[in-house]
Structure formats: C-alpha cells, structure tokens
Design goal:
Length: about 375
C-alpha cells in the first residue's frame, strides 16, 4: 500500500466516528429535552453577559448625563477696564450649553464634598473666590486654579469619569480665558488708538492756541502802541485844558475887577451926573472889562478845543482797549466814563463861550456909551 492511501484511511475513519458521535448526541437530546434547555443556557448566558459588558463600554459618554455632578461657584469676578468679568460664571454657562453630566449648583464647597462622599454626586467642581482675579491677568502659569473633588474609595467609576472630564473642563476654561484676554487686548488697543487720537487733537489745539496767543500778543503790542498814542494825546489835551483853565481864571479875575469898577461907577452915576474924570474912569473900567472879556473868550475857546481833543483821545482809548487781551472791559468802561465827562465839559465850555461872547458885546456897548458920554 502506498503512503497516500495510508493517510486517507485514518481521516475517513475520524469523520465517520465524529458523525456517529453527533448522531448519538442528537438522539440523546431527543430522548431528554432538559438537556436542550441546559445547552441553551450554556450558550446564551455568556453571550448575554458579553453583550451587556460591551454595551456599557461601547459609548459610555452617551449615558453620562445620568451622573450628577456638583458645581460650586464662589468667583467674585474682576473689573477689566470698567467691565465686570466673572470667569467662573462663564464656565458654568459653557458647561450648561454642553451638558456632558447632570449638573447641580450647590451653595458651598463643604456641602458639595459631603454629597460626593455620600455617593449622591459623582464628583464636584469647586471654583474659588479669586479665580478670575488670578486667571484673567495671566501673570503666571497656572495662576487660576479650580478643584475637581472625587471620592475614589466610594465611587471608583465616578473617579475615572472625573479624570477623563478634567481635560475637557480645562479646554472649556482655556477657551473662555483666551476669549477674555483677547477682549482685554482689543480694548487696550482701541483705548490706545483713541488716546493717540485725543493726543493728536490736543496737540493741534495747542498749536492753534499758540498761534492765537501770538496773534493776540501782536495785537496787544499794536494796541499798546495806539494806547500810548491816545494817552499822549490825552496828556496834551489835559495840559491844554489846564492852561486854558489858568487863562480863564486870570480873565475871570480881570472881568471881576472890571465889573466892580463898572458897578461902582454906575452907582455913582445913579446919584449924580459924573464928572469928566469919573467918566474917564468909567471908560477905562469898561475898556478893561471888554479886554478881560476878550481874553476870557480866547481862554474859553482854547479850553473848548482842549476838551474836544480830550474827548477824541478818550474815544480812541476806549476803541483800542477792546483789543487788549487782559483787562479790556475795565479799561473800556473807564475810557467810556472819561469820554462822557469830556463831552459834558466840551458842551459846558461851548455854553460858556456863547455867554462870554454876549458879555463881550455888552462890554463893547458899555465902552461905546461911556465914550459918547
């Protein structure tokens, strides 16, 4: 017998023996139905256990909303350029928009820790009061810290979920933190731009003010020169007025003397006819009266001319004082009062000149009458 024929014979014998065993087992199952139930139990129980285990591990995150997580936010916030920022509250809002777990907000850290230890909460997220003050400025790495509290001895599975949740919590926190920091940077840049614009505007106003100051200084120098001219004219007018007053005083004295002489002569004439000597004295007095009146008229006219110059000087002084940068109103008011006084003085002197002319006519007539006598 060859080698291939010897190998084929044992394999056919094995298959035949296996077939006989299967037929025997099937016959045994037909004879004893309870064996069928036991066989089904042996086959289904491991499959059921494997299915339950695989379903729990297949997508555990889809069922985590049933896990209760305690949240405690004690963050007091921080003021960033007039805007209140509470990073802890923003973190809670972000967690509420993507509810990976069932979140419960508690009042204080101690009650949250006690709930975790009792197994009422899977874990707890604790945000301290100074969280925003340390996190937003970012002065040092890890400045803003929060606490994830777990109780691994009471809930090992919950502790595992907390460890896997910590990176996601850090991601949300960094996102909110970066957003706030960028807002602060943008506000700082906008504030710097606005400050530069205000500085530029202020410099422009400063340049304009400097130019106006220079113009005002030039006008003040011009006005001061004109004011000096007006003051000199006023001084000249005052001097002329003083000289005219002196002449007027002298003429008035002469006129008074002549009037006294004329009055005495007239009183004597009233009692009797005057003699030639008396008439000569009366004529001399009337002539002296006429001469005094002429000098008085000349003095009054010179005084009136000085008053006119005084009025023009005060008017010019009031006009030029308006250009002064400082004290213009006071100088203008004083110049106005001085101009009004000068106008009244000129008017009074005009009336005095008219009266003097009439007096001169009377004195001339008196001298002529005495000459005829």
């Amino acid at each position: 017998m060859s080698a291939p024929e010897a190998t084929a014979a044992p394999s056919r014998g094995f298959r035949q023996a296996y077939a006989r065993m299967v037929r025997y087992d099937l016959g045994l199952l037909r004879q004893h139905p309870r064996f069928v139930m036991a066989l089904l139990a042996v086959l289904l129980v491991p499959s059921l256990y494997a299915g339950i285990y695989l379903s729990s591990m297949w997508d555990p995150a889809s069922h985590t909303r049933g896990l209760r997580v305690a949240l405690v936010n004690q963050d007091t916030g921080i003021d960033v350029r007039g805007r209140q920022v509470n990073l802890g509250q923003q973190l809670l809002t972000s967690l509420a928009t993507e509810p990976t777990f069932g979140y419960d907000t508690l009042a204080d850290p101690e009650s949250a820790k006690a709930a975790v230890r009792r197994g009422e909460r899977t874990f707890a997220v604790l945000i301290p009061p100074d969280f925003s003050r340390h996190a937003v400025p970012g002065e040092a790495a890890g400045a803003g810290e929060l606490t994830v509290y777990i109780s691994e001895g009471n809930n090992y599975t919950g502790a595992g979920f907390a460890r896997r949740f910590a990176p996601e919590l850090a991601r949300k926190l960094n996102h909110a933190l970066n957003e706030q920091r960028w807002n602060a940077v943008l506000q700082t840049a906008a504030g710097a731009t606005e400050s530069v614009a205000q500085l530029r505007e202020g410099v422009a106003q400063l340049v304009t003010g400097a130019r106006q100051l220079a113009d005002a200084a030039g006008q003040a120098r011009t006005g001061s020169g004109k004011l000096d001219d007006g003051a000199r004219q006023l001084a000249q007018g005052s001097a002329q007025l003083e000289a005219g007053l002196g002449q007027l005083t002298g003429a008035s004295q002469q006129l008074t003397g002549g009037m006294k002489q004329a009055g005495g002569a007239l009183r004597q004439m009233h009692g009797r006819m005057p003699s030639a000597a008396e008439l000569q004295a009366l004529k001399a007095g009337s002539q002296q009266l006429a001469d005094g009146q002429k000098e008085l008229g000349a003095g009054l006219r010179q005084l009136q001319q000085g008053a006119g110059q005084l009025r023009e000087g005060t008017k010019k002084l009031g006009t030029e004082s308006q250009k002064l940068p400082f004290g213009a109103s006071k100088v203008g008011d004083a110049a106005g009062q001085l101009e009004a006084g000068a106008t009244q003085l000129q008017g009074g002197l005009g009336q005095a000149v008219t009266a003097s002319d009439r007096l001169g006519e009377g004195a001339t007539q008196l001298a002529g009458g005495v000459g005829r006598l």
